[in-house]
Amino acid sequence: MTYSVKLKAGDDFPVLESTLFDGSTVTLGKPNGDATWQAVVVYRGKHCPLCTKYLNELESHKQALADLGIDVVAVSADSKAQLEEHLQKLEVSFPIAYGLTEDQMKTLGLYISSPRSEQETDHNFAEPGLFIVNEKGQVQVIDISNMPFTRPELGTLLHGLAFIRNPEANYPIRGTVDY
């Protein structure tokens, strides 16, 4: 039996860099601008219509997230050419990085899949993952899946994040008991 290491709630988010379409680098988990938290969205790649739909829906929640002090970055294992093609179907203004490596996927504890055919894609890719990284660089919220159709519903996620970010709630990171 093979075991994989999973990033746990409350862990420090690993320092991982990825490349944006313009060639600049982004450090995943490090908020930009006035944001103090960051949502890191790992998606399967341009071959996945559910990813395209999810990223476009995420755009409609971007301002509400920004109002909570949370910025957004998305990343996949796609190449620059694949991202360029995918950008034609995306209607997003948040940064999207490419070139997530298998070592980075493993560091994040993501499920990794092989393509079913060359028509799907030409490389192994990460299944969906969502990491909300707080101002201390810790994983506040984590959601990983082995299937493209099991992802957090964005309205519910936003509602929960608003509750967590409310100082009066004093809501801790959940799921930290070791067993």
Automatic annotation (TrEMBL):
Entries under SUPFAM superfamilies matching the protein: Thioredoxin-like
Residues forming coiled coils: none
Annotated Thioredoxin domain residues: 7-163
GO molecular function: peroxidase activity
Keyword terms, alphabetized: Oxidoreductase, Peroxidase
A Pfam family this chain is assigned to: Redoxin
Keyword set includes Transmembrane helix: no
Tagged with keyword RNA-binding: no
Protein's recorded name: Thioredoxin peroxidase
Organism: Vibrio rumoiensis 1S-45
